[in-house]
Amino acid sequence: MLNTAERSRPTQPAPISADDVEAVGKARGIRNEEPLIFEVGRAEVSGVDLPEPETVTSRLGGLERKTELGLPGLSEPEALRHYVRLSKQNYAIDINTYPLGSCTMKHNARLNEKMARLPGFGDIHPLQPLSTVQGAVDLMQELSHWLMTLTGMEAIALSPKAGAHGELCGMMAIKTALAARGEDATRTTVLAPQSAHGTNPATAAVLGYRIESIPARADGTVDPEVVKAKLGPHVAAIMLTNPNTCGLFEPDIIAIADAVHAAGAFFYCDGANLNAILGKVRPGELGVDAMHINLHKTLSTPHGGGGPGSGPVVLSATLAPYAPVPFIRMENGAPVLIEESVHALEGEQPFGRMTAFHGQMGMYVRALAYLLSHGEDGVKSASETAVLNANYVRVGLRDVMTQPFGDRICMHEALFDDRFLEPHGVTTLDFAKAMIDEGYHPMTMYFPLVVHGALLIEPTESESKESLDQFIETMRGLAARAKAGDAASFKTAPHFAPRRRLDETRAARQPRLRWRPAT
Amino acid sequence: MRYLPQTDADRSAMLARIGVPDIDALFADVPKGKLVTDPHGLPRGQGEISVERHMNRLAAKNVAAGSVPFFVGAGAYRHHVPASVDHLIQRSEFLTSYTPYQPEISQGTLQTLFEFQTQVALLTGMEVANGGMYDGSTATAEAILMARRLTGRAKAVLSGGLHPHYRDVAETISRMSGGTHEAMPPAPTAEEDILSRIDDQTACVVVQTPTFYGHLVDLRPIAEACHAKGALLVAVVTEVVSLGAIESPGAQGADIVAAEGQSFGNPLTFGGPYVGLLATRDKFIRQLPGRLTGETVDAAGERGFVLTLSTREQHIRREKATSNICTSSGLCALAFSIHLTLLGSAGLAKLAAINHANAVRLAEVLATVKGIRVLNDTFFNEFTIRVPGNAAEIVEKLTQRGILGGVPVSRLEPDRPDLADLIVVAATELTTADDRSMFAAALAEVL
Ligand SMILES: Cc1ncc(COP(=O)(O)O)c(C=O)c1O
């Protein structure tokens, strides 16, 4: 029975008409348009109440600020709304599958966030007395032990701040080892497959190396004979990703490593794809000399809209002496943080320093919490599940999409090319934008460069079977739509996102990289 | 395992669908004998309860800065972070997204980056800033590489007021990348004759202000001398709160500003993650490394933001890129930006004034301790004291009395016996009058 107050309130929606109704303002339901802080903030407003400063005689020596800051302020409620509304324009792992290949967008456990915020980790200063931070050094040692054990490597440099910084660190160690052999001046070339991530050649170039590309075999992997032909006394190192950026385990990796070593060069392994093999394969047993581990990928520290990351580098026995400061030395069973080169002992020849202080402690805490939660059994099953999920997606799509290297088992990511789209006038970009309309973040597109219109799908172990089934169904539906000749709907996608397709050409031609007051 | 959704039945069904007998069949490309069969001897998985217990035990072995009178700075500063900052950066949509490669569903990240770039430009007095670097030290190293590309010269002159870790990072990258550098001796007093080192081989002069020892540097004569020789001035700031009180490096003629942004929004966390700031003049943007967000419109004519000028970056230009940087410090940049939005000009000016006043009061009370000499005429929230004796030992004795009394310079300059009696001490808005007098009293006791 209805009560009187409800009697006049309609409880069934009216049938919808085909015509769209325009909203009066810019908002669309609970999706708001949000101006820039510079358009709504006021210089005299502040969302922070501070005590009055004591009156003192200035010691600024006449260098007081005279130009205006011009920074807008917002009260706390205004600030909350500004950022919450903006956040709603973002896609995120917590919303749906984020199959961005090569980036390992797995679940970010909130326990790890909580642990990083313990005052004993979050509120300690990098230069407070070492006697007051033994727990931090213990934690770094414990994480080091996990990473070295799982990878089967001799030593570790924890401090690099992301994968690319780890590459730089590893290549600097290699350069130093070559210098110690008197070969730095002659070994001036670095080999890298064409499929390598851009950071690999960019890293080698920072260090002054000439980059020589290795073409891939027809099956997407590297041919040891091709590597051998390129090796010589001028080669410093090979930078190889394994599993590679096509999502394949390099089957001849040992032959390649042997050839590289026989030629007096080093093997740098890009460890970005470790999520396929952590706990299953020890890269140290494959002949790797240096490899970075992206804690923000494999060990699930949050990607945060583009960082922070963390890229510890594990090193072989040959490279171990050259690890940069700071490093950890065991003394009488206890870990000690060695911060300066002058404290190095015999056999320790740090090549220098990568960053101020000790690296990404906040990420070490989260990574260790991840490892403790998983345990070695869980780490192994995470890798297995990541590979299982990728193959399940691959098999679910192989009859409607095209695989560049034939129908073969992949590691933790499934790679397709655009041959299934091309005849229908749909590009990889169009396809990606249509995925947005279906509620998915697109896969990585146009990478690796060796595959035409590449679509690189990395589901990660965090996806349930139901979630993968839904993803596969959606992708099949889109592939069918492309095949049916409905290119037009792809060209204008996305239709249901906070923004339609953005004009990148205009952004680059007339760069507006900051707000300026209207003149 | 609570993070893995598959049941055994799911796994079997999926393997069957793929058409392989077992999981290891998916690892068939791994060379024979290289699949791990023996256990690693590492612990097995644990629930939240035992992981927390383990982590709590480790954390309890550290002395949290907030639990004691605290005067440690030297490149990382303990400031108050408004509660809403940490709440906002933990929103799923910010925390669990990545680099905004798909702008239509990343406007939240892109607009906040655009705001961040503008805030950094305003704060440093420069025309343009990028979307952030790893930290202040790597931003400084990138600034040097950038100056080398811009001038076609190889040499960087490093001021003795530069943070020793920054100097070491810069030296490492210079040496490894075919550059040269000239590091001036440490400058615990304000005097330094850097102008005479600038010549027509100089790509840039790197000057920190306030210096590692706390002195404020008038950048204008250095900028003039640089420009007269065709060199660039790289200004380094490790305490960005100072920019609320001190004239910006841009207004003093700097060409590139590299700074540590930790002070806004980011906790100490033992040195990272932090966020590097890198700002410069419009005419140099093609050589600026890192992500840049730009304004544009969408197909419906609405304003929107995208990553832009990517032809500077590794994913497009590979070995010809301006830098190898990819993942940077997005979430730390967001924390920085939110904190600065909450402060605004008025709040920042006041915050800076409090920091300065507290440091002035600290210097006054420490100067009353017999045997202590404050070396600085000028400073912002940090200065150097000379103690009668070994600074490291004195700091350790203070620690035993429950006071974290600054950084002995010898910790970062261990091979400089002439600096062994110096301590760099800092005060912020969190330093109380009680803290200051306890510090002075304890110092008097241990001397
Ligand atoms: C294969 C590969 N190598 C290197 C990197 C660089 O790592 P980071 O972004 O952490 O610097 C990435 C990721 O972005 C990658 O996918």
Task: Using brief descriptors, characterize the structure shown.
heterodimer; A: 519 residues; alpha/beta; Aspartate Aminotransferase, domain 2; Aspartate Aminotransferase, domain 1; 2 domains; 7-stranded mixed beta sheet; 3-stranded antiparallel beta sheet; 12 strands; B: 447 residues; 12 helices; 13 strands; 13% strand; binds pyridoxal-5'-phosphate
What's the SSE blueprint?
The complex is a heterodimer of chains A (519) and B (447).
Chain A: H1 4-7, H2 37-40, H3 76-87, H4 110-116, H5 119-122, H6 134-151, E1 155-157, H7 163-180, E2 189-193, H8 199-206, E3 210-214, H9 224-230, E4 235-241, H10 253-262, E5 266-270, E6 290-292, E7 313-315, E8 327-331, E9 334-338, H11 361-397, E10 414-416, H12 428-437, E11 444-445, E12 455-457, H13 465-483, H14 487-491, H15 504-509
Parallel strand pairs in A: 2-3, 2-4, 4-5, 5-6
Antiparallel strand pairs in A: 1-7, 6-7, 8-9, 10-12, 11-12
Helix pairs in contact in A: 4-11, 6-11, 7-8, 9-10, 11-13
Chain B: H1 8-18, H2 48-60, H3 83-89, H4 92-95, H5 107-124, E1 128-129, H6 136-151, E2 155-158, H7 164-176, E3 180-183, E4 202-208, H8 220-228, E5 232-237, E6 256-260, E7 276-280, E8 293-297, E9 303-307, H9 314-317, H10 330-367, E10 373-374, E11 382-386, H11 391-400, E12 407-408, E13 422-426, H12 433-446
